Amino acid sequence: MRAINSLLVFAIASLLLPSCGEKSEPNLTVKKKFIEGSNSYELLMFDTINKIDAGGLKQGKWIVRKLPGNIVLESGMYKDNQKQGCWVRHGLKGEFIDSIYYNNDVPSK
């Protein structure tokens, strides 16, 4: 049962964060924001996003938005407060701009 749940979460996450070079739907709605002790995170569908761990470091999937309008400006992964892997950027109207790969917070080609 856990394996099925993990696959479901992975499938949904794959749809939400496109691979580099692909356009995505930038207007996603966060359902809830939680604070537990010194950790904070949000839930998007069934996926945890924008997590800050007990040490105050960003971890996992992040989606940066512009308010008002909740437009997604960029999305990608953090590990120990550093950008990792593919990050997708959008303009102020939600249009796809580009995607950039990061290794320990440094853009790479």
| Rg calculated over all Cα atoms | 14 Å
Instruction: Return residue spans where pLDDT drops below 50 for at least 5 consecutive residues.
Output: 1-17, 22-27
Largest sheet: 8 strands, antiparallel
Question: How are the strands of the largest sheet arranged?
Answer: 1-2-3-4-5-6-7-8
Distance between the first and last residues' Cα: 40 Å
Mean pLDDT: 76
Name the overall outline.
flat
Helix proportion range: 10-25%
Descriptive overview:
There is one protein chain. The protein is mostly beta strands. It has one domain (2-108). Helix content is 14%, strand content 50%. It has one helix and eight strands. Strands 1-2-3-4-5-6-7-8 form an eight-stranded antiparallel β-sheet. It is flat and about 35 Å long.
SSE inventory with pairings:
Elements: H1 2-16, E1 32-36, E2 39-44, E3 47-52, E4 58-66, E5 71-79, E6 82-90, E7 96-103, E8 106-108
Antiparallel strand pairs: 1-2, 2-3, 3-4, 4-5, 5-6, 6-7, 7-8
Summary?
With 109 residues, this protein is mostly beta strands.
Please name the defining characteristics of this protein.
eight-stranded antiparallel β-sheet, 109 residues, 1 helix
